[in-house]
Amino acid sequence: MAQNNKKTNILLADDHHLVRDGIKSLLIKYDDFNVVGEGADGVELLKTIEHTEEPIDLILADINMPNMNGLELCQHITNNYPHTKVIILSMLDHEKYVSQALKAGAKGYLLKSVNEEELVFAIRQVMNNLFYVCSELTHQLLSKTLISGQVNVKSLADNAEKVDFSSREIEILELIAEGYTNVEIADKLFTSKRTVEGHRLQMITKTGVRNTAALVKFCITNGILHYA
Predict the structure, then answer these.
(1) Spans of the chain below 50 pLDDT
(2) Number of structural domains the chain divides into
(3) pTM score > 0.90 for this model?
(4) Count of other CB atoms within 10 angstroms of residue 169
(5) Is the CB of residue 10 less than 8 Å from the CB of residue 37?
(6) Alpha-carbon span 78 to 156, nearest angstrom
């Protein structure tokens, strides 16, 4: 979803030149994205921000970088450029890094193994003021949460009465919970990927949760979905 036809100005922070080139080659295909600069570490990226005339909407940053790592960069951006959002893009799949990133102010966390579809979806969701954690980590965290029972049932129940899902949204929810991507769901339901994205965002909005993991947890807790 484009932001009122306005391009999202993006900066890339990664110490591997090939990684930055690969991400750029993916994003330049989309009319609503504009990669305006890059840096090999946090210090270099901050210099880029200072010399970039256009406002920066989003930064994609690796965690492991020399001089200033992704978490330090994220904290600096949060403190000094509150309107700029940060998504961490990393090889590190442990939940502690997700927690550290969100505490530093990141709006999303993606593993570098994500495909183009999920990268694009994550950027658009974050630009719609929603949090996003990639599907691989979502299911990992969700499983641990369900096993530990760490869920605010009262808070979820208060919202449950207000939620009215359509039959198509229920179909999509079930497939999301099974780990299917937007493209795979679209193929199964004979619809478009963009339509599936729209339903997912609409359900997150309806429930008032932060991301897809919280959406699935909400629906399982309130009996909308049944977790086998």
Answers:
(1) 1-3, 147-161, 228
(2) 2
(3) no
(4) 18
(5) no
(6) 29
